[in-house]
Amino acid sequence: MSVNASSLLPYVEKIERRRPLSDEARAAFLALPVQLESYGTYQSILNEGERPDRCCLIVEGVVSRYKSLKNGRRQINSFHYAGDMVDLQAAILTVADTGIRTHTPTKAVRIDCEDILDLAEKYPEWARAFWFDTQVDASIFREWTLNVGQRTAVERVAHLLLEISARLESIGQSDGKEFVLPVTQADLADAVGLSAVHTNRSIQQLRHSGALRTHGRKVVIENYPALAKVASFDRTYLHPEGPRR
Amino acid sequence: MSVNASSLLPYVEKIERRRPLSDEARAAFLALPVQLESYGTYQSILNEGERPDRCCLIVEGVVSRYKSLKNGRRQINSFHYAGDMVDLQAAILTVADTGIRTHTPTKAVRIDCEDILDLAEKYPEWARAFWFDTQVDASIFREWTLNVGQRTAVERVAHLLLEISARLESIGQSDGKEFVLPVTQADLADAVGLSAVHTNRSIQQLRHSGALRTHGRKVVIENYPALAKVASFDRTYLHPEGPRR
DNA sequence: CGGCGGTTTGATGTGACTCAAAAAGAGTGG
DNA sequence: CCACTCTTTTTGAGTCACATCAAACCGCCG
Questions:
Q1: Which pTM was predicted?
Q2: Test the A interface: residue of B87, B97, B121 with most A CBs within 10 Å
Q3: Residue B234 host element (H or E)
Q4: Residue A206 needs a FRET pair 20 to 30 A away by CA distance; which of A218, B44, B57, B75 works?
Q5: Domains and CATH numbers, chain A
């Protein structure tokens, strides 16, 4: 298998887990010219306000999308893992309303926006796949707004941990019980709209309640039902059922 | 013009403001069979968790999408106005992760999800239009997460008012300075993650600063630059520039 | 003129923030 | 394997923004 195909495969697998592609459509995607790039920890992939001409598919590592205010406060909008097309929005929106940066050493491939649009134009199934992907993204954003807008500190942190767990599980990096937390508590704080100190205290509270344990970066969910209950976590919003068509 | 076409026209106009459609594509949309429905104030159009088979296009009135917690707390995720296809997500996501309800007397047309998908399959320009619409939606959700996650009470309220103003302006219901606020303060509160009381006090603060005035439901922006500054409002996230293609 | 949704006010409580510093890990080089 | 540094997590103390509760007020409509 070519370098291209092997780095693009995780995304195809993610799409086909939801709904199989025709051989022709799959092949067309895997034949796209790509450019593999490596990043260190906390490196910028895209800045807010830029006009990117390429999309970004994560091959390895963890990145986040964020928006920031002039006073320095930052909101992380989403975390992305291997197989995620982070910047699908770049294909059709000309100006980036979020920045993208890494949280671990990361490998990513860049795909030309025009190639994505051509694919969507030629293959309705790809148009639908990209659209579905964007809809799931949007659904997650809605849940995050609910999270920071209405839940208490402990609930927010619990919810985020469960989401991370679920998403890592879908790419084989968690067994649903135990996973390596790919980000620091300060980053979690930026994602749930709390201070780092209070995020830490919320995690401690979850530990003391017996819902989870941590060993360094490793998180062990001790009592999933209890954790899901405090977080009111319901994975419907991740839309694991796939698209209607 | 048929009843169908006249109620569907506002959406076509919104789409074509961004990028013109081919005559054929336009005609195909306007020929869709639709069902016009009327709702009163605070009526439910869709409940969380349902499996709708039709999308919903607002002809007249204001509706919101929301998510709620078992303790009764509610987060409004978006407001929608005439010409908005509120429930485009229903076309491709099988289960609704948000509810939809009206805030004013509302007229809406229901379009079969399968018709939407057929249109996207047959006309790549429609597939792109729907995808773009969803991307803009997602961008607004990201901004709302930033709003509730990182801004202070006064900033949040100012930002929401400016967004409402900008969106009403694009459909001719505001001149950019003066508009009729289509929702109550309690609803604003649910949208910005504050209590109704504190939302009220934040509005008062904006009034006392001279940034805006209110006469009943009418809002008059007295000092747009000042208001935009406190809100750090920048309409880039509404993507008025339209799609790349 | 009475009733009702919506707005406004006041008083009080508290969850989360800030600042600052200590403790614990993780990585690097001698 | 230990010393050193840098990052991340944890602790403590004091403060403030926003929540809650309850009641008054206002404007609109029948």
A1: 0.97
A2: B97
A3: none
A4: B75
A5: 3-143 (2.60.120.10), 152-238 (1.10.10.10)
